[in-house]
Structures are given as C-alpha cells and as structure tokens.
Design a protein that fits this description.
The protein has about 150 residues and is mainly alpha-helical. It folds into two domains: about 80 residues, Rna Polymerase Sigma Factor, Chain: A; about 50 residues, Arc Repressor Mutant, subunit A. About 85% of the residues lie in helices and about 0% in strands.
Length: about 150
C-alpha cells in the first residue's frame, strides 16, 4: 500500500483519538487543532516507520501525540519562565524608583504579608496615611512597569 494512502487511512482512524487526547490536556481549541495537525505532520515525515512495523501504528500514533503535547507544555513553561524573569526584573527596577518609605510599605505588605494597620503601627504613622501611600505606590509601580 502506498505510504500516502496509508497515512490517509491512519488519519481517518486516529484523528478523533488524537484530538480527544490533546483536548484532555490542552484547553485552547486553536492549540488543539494546531497540535493535532503537528502530530500528523510528524507522522507523515516518519511514514517509513509504518512500513517497518505496521502492527505498531497505534503505538506510534500515541507516542507521537504524547511527545507533541509534552513539547507544547515545555515550550509554554519556557516562555512563562522568561516572562516571569522579565516581569520580576521590571518590578525590581520599578521598586528601586520608589521613595524608601513607599518601597518599604509595598515590601512589608505584599512580600512580608503584613497588614496595613500593622505597618502603620510599626512605622508610627496614621493608618489613613499608610493606606494613601500604598495606593499611590501601587499606581506609580504600575506606570513604571508599563513603560
């Protein structure tokens, strides 16, 4: 049997299974479709494997699908780590541009988990002033990070 026709038959038989497997792991429908297409593109590139081991088509399709999904998540994880590192760098740079008192309030409240009333008591300042400084510092941080 010609490899292309064989792949077409395999596509008809396995495409619903491949799509279902991917859909169980990936929520974005566009990504599901793209990954399914990737699986069958990889299978087309590896069409000689069908001739060598025709009895293991199911295993080959499954392994290719699993590998494609793993590659997808590895790529997303890598992108997320890069974005997180960039975001943390931008946040650190922005914090450095705040005045010391505002920076202390942000660090104590958001990193150390202290409540604003405890920060007010520790800094011997009225709660309303700490609340206002916190709000202003957050607004300034947002502007600095967006630049």
């Amino acid at each position: 049997m010609e490899a292309v026709n064989e792949l077409e038959l395999i596509y008809r038989e396995y495409e619903p299974k491949v799509t279902a497997y991917i859909r169980n792991h990936v929520s974005n429908p566009d990504d599901v479709k793209a990954l399914s297409d990737d699986v069958f593109q990889k299978l087309l590139q590896n069409k000689e494997a069908f001739r060598k081991e025709p009895e293991s088509v199911s295993r080959l399709v499954y392994m290719t699908t699993k590998q494609t999904v793993e590659e997808y998540f590895a790529e997303i994880s890598e992108e997320t780590q890069m974005l997180d590192a960039k975001s943390l760098d931008r946040l650190a740079d922005a914090l450095e541009q705040l005045d010391v008192r505002s920076r202390d309030i942000i660090i104590l409240h958001y990193y150390a988990g202290k409540t604003l009333d405890k920060i007010a008591a520790a800094m011997d300042m009225p709660y309303a002033e700490i609340e206002l400084l916190n709000k202003e510092a957050l607004e300034r941080l947002q502007k600095l990070i967006e630049l």
